[in-house]
Amino acid sequence: MADINSPVEIGVTTGPIRGSRKIHVGARTGSGVQVAMREIDLEGGEAPVRVYDTSGPYTDPNVAIDINSGLEAKRADWIRARSDVEEYDAREVKPEDNGQLGPDRSGGVPQFPNPVKRPLRAKAGHNVSQMHYARKGIITPEMEYVAERENLGRELAKDFVRDGEGWGAEIPDVITPEFVRSEVARGRAIIPNNINHPETEPMAIGRNFLVKINANIGNSAVASDVAQEVDKMVWATRWGADTIMDLSTGRNIHDTREWIIRNSAVPVGTVPIYQALEKVGGVAEDLTWDIFRDTLIEQAEQGVDYFTIHAGVRLAYVPMAAKRVTGIVSRGGSIMAKWCLAHHKESFLYEHFDDITEIMKAYDIAYSLGDGLRPGSIADANDEAQFSELYTLGELTHRAWEHDVQVMIEGPGHVPMHKIKENMEKQLEVCGEAPFYTLGPLVTDIAPGYDHITSGIGAAQIGWYGTAMLCYVTPKEHLGLPDRDDVKVGVVTYKLAAHAADLAKGHPAAQVRDDALSKARFEFRWRDQFNLSLDPETAEEFHDQTLPAEGAKTAHFCSMCGPRFCSMQISQEVRDFAAKQNESPESFLASEKLGADTAEASRQAAIKGMEEMSEKYKDMGQKLYLPEE
Amino acid sequence: MADINSPVEIGVTTGPIRGSRKIHVGARTGSGVQVAMREIDLEGGEAPVRVYDTSGPYTDPNVAIDINSGLEAKRADWIRARSDVEEYDAREVKPEDNGQLGPDRSGGVPQFPNPVKRPLRAKAGHNVSQMHYARKGIITPEMEYVAERENLGRELAKDFVRDGEGWGAEIPDVITPEFVRSEVARGRAIIPNNINHPETEPMAIGRNFLVKINANIGNSAVASDVAQEVDKMVWATRWGADTIMDLSTGRNIHDTREWIIRNSAVPVGTVPIYQALEKVGGVAEDLTWDIFRDTLIEQAEQGVDYFTIHAGVRLAYVPMAAKRVTGIVSRGGSIMAKWCLAHHKESFLYEHFDDITEIMKAYDIAYSLGDGLRPGSIADANDEAQFSELYTLGELTHRAWEHDVQVMIEGPGHVPMHKIKENMEKQLEVCGEAPFYTLGPLVTDIAPGYDHITSGIGAAQIGWYGTAMLCYVTPKEHLGLPDRDDVKVGVVTYKLAAHAADLAKGHPAAQVRDDALSKARFEFRWRDQFNLSLDPETAEEFHDQTLPAEGAKTAHFCSMCGPRFCSMQISQEVRDFAAKQNESPESFLASEKLGADTAEASRQAAIKGMEEMSEKYKDMGQKLYLPEE
């Protein structure tokens, strides 16, 4: 099979994001753990701003990227140092793993040049999950990494008055490795980290950490190829995706996944039932526990960090979906529903849940308990089918926790704004605060083509209420497969929604970046405004469409008011005026209490002070025409 | 001046929006009032869906559009029938009205061919405001029009269980003309309707009506021309703008406005201080009451329906802005702030408020009390300057109401999610439930280029809490001037946010369109899905990028799962299965109560029932491969 060892041409985007540098910060524990971050340099003597960085080595000019050999296994030593793992011969790759009847790969995807031949698993009787270590009181390097990464900007914000409504979140002023450990131990956060995916930069998903986002990629039965998907993975993480889900269907699922995992610095999740279904030719009722189990091992050895398992779709709930406007919209959910109906048996995922858990703990794979009965429309939100499944997911969460296996819970979907909070409250209650991971939700169904926005509205809200990770939605949702641009728009939309949630929750450092950008805007530092934004290219491109000249980048005006009059300039004059007084602006005011009388009183006080200052102000010179460069 | 009477080439978009027809529904009062609506035809024997229509005659194939003569004056008879108005000679247009020193129009904007030479005003001692009639117990044709227009879809929804959280809104099951009258009488809604803008189709802005949106257009000192602005007005209303604000600055303000108003079927608002500033060469401190008053008359005669008046920017509040990260970002606010500081006097807008009110009631112009001290960044949200001004706006609202003049209140701006509700609650309390009209608010400042989304998140929330009209934000906000595409994206984004708010408030008819679209999606009626969406062109374009073939429009699958497996199909099988039983799906369930035990119980019940049906189901034939057309 000639093509196996011939290098593949896969172009990905590398190099720093404009106006910023990759930096590595040593954990303050002195353990030597180095945490990757991004620092944005500012003009006008402003201190640089550090931001959370999911882009991996691809934005580090000092790292040579070779897609054909994959990323460096940074976590390998940490994993082996715990001496609770063993190498073994990997399961043999079968033709059906790639949806092929014969070994012929022609027309398919080339095999990754150096697949894992000797994967790791826990030694007999051991449990290698981060939750297991956490419960034994062990602080792992992964936990240290997370602590440093999440602390980002908190120093800058230390004099900051905290402000926000956390709805029960308990976000500390500073994140210590011990705090990370305790959150993981009690199941309120997870660190998805398959021991066979040592290329990852550890991250945490939990309501007391920054809100994370996931981007879905993957081949479909009707389109895309491996080069495109690897590029999408790199592209999505460049703009801020905290995890990636490979939702490939059709052929070449095994090889596509290998390419993605070996080159991904973020955790990778999958829905194993998709591949299992391909192995039985797409006939749901032909699925068996053995085929599914074999698929879990296959993916565990490749290094998948979390599995979506639809074990909550129980036989008894299936008929509830019959009453709906849009029935079952989850692909995994409908596969299991069909299996249950055809056999009139309880779901084999539910029946074999503890067997699945045994596999999870041998590789440290986290559960992402799937919401196979999530609503597919506003009309079906918060219905009996959805909540019945949620209660079962709560039961399964506690069963997984008995084995120290990490769990997060998937959530909707399509929910009008007034029903969003109920979803969060029920999930926290039923699932013991296990991290919630929602898809949107969309708050209306009338805007196909804009569902990144209809769902971004719901995502920001549910993130505020306590959802730990938001699964992005692209403009193509419900219509087609996202291309590169759609992926970027989806990621940026979800980053801003997640950030809005952090602000509203009162995350101590969240406002640092907003304030830096607002200050740059007020001072007409256009380049800083672009560089501090989530998408500098688009910001600059939009600016230049109206005022292309390079001079406009330093002009003290914008295209809204033009050079002859500018609100910002007036504000500066107001500020200068106040500063010229030997008293603070407050002294102009009789009182902080509001209301017309107070206004009248303060007005008197103000006029008194101002009359004296009248001449002084005139002396300041009220220049009105700003330099037109 | 040769060009005055030569017709101008202005291209605007006309013709029906795809898949829909313009219809006219007679008011059920039998008064003969005909209300324009849009009806979307569906396939598969589904009843057509009626939607609110702001597009005016431009989407009516039976109307010949001539931009050079303007729209038909549909309201003219209603206005004159009240016999409380008189014609008089219009104020002479002065060169400075268009920012010119001489009469030479070369290089400027051509004059509208037939400007209003004999405008109307209230006869001495009369008040022609809708509020005045309402308080006298008179139901005007305008109120009838609004009632019919807002009732839209309520019949379809009558068997609908109402559901939502209205935060104190009092939305009736059916809107009667009397309800409209009472809402206008108590100031909880306004119908912006200058008697010199008889081309409008009456609409209401109030918390107990559908949430409305405004689109800003207008020339700027650095760009655009009249043809472009008229086209933008038609384009924005085509996609759903309920009102338009002409924020033109620089030259040719008067003529640009005339072209826009004569061709606009929706209310037009302005910020008169912008034009007044141009008249004094941009020197804020040279503004006088006389110049401002003359500008109000000029615009009143042209037919402006609402004026943004920044009378709440009082001298005493100006220094409060000095403490801010972004000072004063409202252009009108900063103009008045500068005037106040330069003269050390109270704002002439505040001092002459009652004089302004006299003008408003003579033409039925509504106040849009401007928030000149709105926050320009997350850091400045809900601060002393903002709320001090709000309290003054409350005081002015009650003063305007003493003269039966309609009022709405402008709001922020930039507000993190946890501070949005406080804005709404304070406004309702201080301003006696006068309609709130907010710009966004943006919930974070870190995403320039995506501020239609950062603000759409805040807009959906504040609309849910009770804001009556949302001023759109385009992707170019803070960066440049919106082009045609930006206007469309801004309008559609705000339509979906306003609709999400209606759904959450529990508007009785809001969910009709969502359900129709969801049903079309479930049944793979692709064309219906496109036509029911806010932007059919974009929806279809996105679909075709993945599956271009015409066959795909009728295919019973989509590009996400492909033809071999489909969740929706499985759902249909589940439904058929349930239907085949001689019992309802409910009978599968032991109880409505949720929880693991119940699940177990219902599971037993289900298995029992299902075993009997096992054979029947198999007979149904479980076809899996769907036709690949």
TrEMBL record, chains A, B:
Pfam families: ThiC-associated, ThiC_Rad_SAM. Catalyzes the synthesis of the hydroxymethylpyrimidine phosphate (HMP-P) moiety of thiamine from aminoimidazole ribotide (AIR) in a radical S-adenosyl-L-methionine (SAM)-dependent reaction. This is Phosphomethylpyrimidine synthase. HAMAP family: ThiC (MF_00089). Residues 86-97 have a biased composition (Basic and acidic residues). InterPro entries: ThiC, ThiC-associated_dom, ThiC/BzaA/B. Substrate binds at residues 216, 245, 274, 310, 330-332, 371-374, 410, 437. The keyword Zinc applies. Binds 1 [4Fe-4S] cluster per subunit. The cluster is coordinated with 3 cysteines and an exchangeable S-adenosyl-L-methionine.
